[in-house]
Amino acid sequence: MTGLTARQLQWWDAKRLFASHIGSRRTARGGYTERRYTPVDLLELLVLADLRRQGFTVAQLRRLLDTLRELFRVRLFETIGGGGPLTLMSDGQDVYGRTSSGDLFNLLRDPQQPMLMLVDVPNLRELSPRAARKRRRQPRPRSRARSRSTE
């Protein structure tokens, strides 16, 4: 659904970028149960996965999540869908936050300084949870057996 692999999720959890809000439990055999995610976790993972597909680095994702948590005191979930105190937007190179009062901030470069917008930013769109599209496998062309004609 998100397009993220189990290994990516493991790595993100180990590096404390994103962890499930439902903890895994110890099993009778000494292992742990699989990761489980809340619906809110899933929506946040969809947004993060979309940003990764756009080319944002893990360091930029960490900076974004830290900025939202520490500076604006919100979770990523509260910034998507347009109903929260901050709305996230991206042009594919930067992530911006627009407050309910209309102030715009570049969350990756200088999140404490409001921006003055004189022109429209091309390709600026509001971030929303989008499921990864499944890639269709193209059928392999059949190789034709070469026939040699003898004369």
Sum this structure up briefly.
The protein is α+β, with helices and mostly antiparallel strands and 151 residues long. It contains 3 helices and 5 strands; from the N terminus they run αααβββββ.
Descriptors:
five-stranded antiparallel beta sheet, alpha+beta, single chain, 151 residues, 5 strands
Overview of this protein structure:
With 151 residues, this protein is α+β, with helices and mostly antiparallel strands. The chain has one domain (6-22, 34-126). The protein contains three helices and five strands, in the order H-H-H-E-E-E-E-E. The chain has helices at 6-14, 39-53, 58-70; strands at 86-90, 95-99, 104-106, 110-115, 125-126. The chain has a five-stranded antiparallel sheet, with no helix packed on it. The longest helix has 15 residues, at 39-53.
